[in-house]
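Revision sheet: structure tokens.
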Amino acid sequence: MAFFTSAITILQTLVVALGAGLAVWGVINLLEGYGNDNPGANAHVR
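Predicted:
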């Protein structure tokens, strides 16, 4: 039974780490998306 307890603990840690990584990636993508709202950033295109 101790094996299953430790396996569940390891799986919980992996799931939390994966969720945190996805959350950080999503926040970075959101911040990069907001960068396109600045018209002054496209001044070099003309």
